[in-house]
Amino acid sequence: MRGGGRDRPYCEASLRGSALRDKSLSAMRQMLLELEQHNPARKGHGERVASYSVATAHKLGFNEEELFAMRIAAVLHDYGKTRIDRTILEHSGQLEAHQLVEIRAWVVGSASKVSKEVFLESVEPIIVSQYERFDGLGFPGKQKGEEIPIGARVIALCVAFDVMRNQQCWKLAKSEEDAIADINRNSATQFDPDVVAAFLSVQPLITPIDL
User: Fold this and answer.
1) Distance separating alpha carbons of residues 10 and 25, to the nearest angstrom
2) CB-side exposure of 173: number of CA atoms within 13 Å?
3) Section 49-69 average pLDDT
4) What is the value of pTM for the model shown?
């Protein structure tokens, strides 16, 4: 497990007892419903990313409260897309660079709202930093390596894997083997090598069976 950047930002003094957890989960479900109604093509994406993220984080040694925050951040990592015109989200081709910037800006900008709605300040830095890259070439702060919150490093990889494995309106799905090959190719550039190792150790156990 990596040390730097792992400064326990997820432990919330206010998150004590089942009542507040229930409120957090209720808010999460409502926000997820809003997101999936706005962008039906991505239904199930948030929960799949959450499954991958929580399993990977558990492998990395996250405690119970950190895992709880990871689940909520992963489920709602795309919540900002509720502010994006559906014609852009459902565009059948590759998006223009300015459209990608707009989407990412709304997603990052939604982090504060998400954290307040679910009563967890710790989800904000995870959502804000999900587009950062391990090599420092990401968005929005060009954070590098362990400067990036560990939760964001986990979600970045898990989102990428799920997007590769599922058909989008603008691309076909990749095979599991090709998706894993891409993950390995981008280890230490786009993705944290420790997160890659943890993910690959749990991925065969949690990937949905293709029917």
Assistant:
1) 16
2) 9
3) 96
4) 0.85
CA dihedral 168, 192, 81, 29 (to 10 degrees): 100
Residue 103's nearest CA partner among 52, 48, 39 is 39
Whose structure tokens read 């565009």?
91
Query: Which of 60-64, 124-128, 170-174 has the lowest average pLDDT?
Result: 170-174
Domain with residue 83: its CATH number is 1.10.3210.10
**Tally of domains within the chain:** 1
Report d(CA 64, CA 175) in Å as an integer. Answer: 33
Range of the domain at 200: 18-204
Cα of 34 vs its chain's centroid, Å: 17
**What is the spatial distance between Cα 49 and Cα 18, in angstroms, rounded to a whole number?**
24
Mean pLDDT of the chain: 87
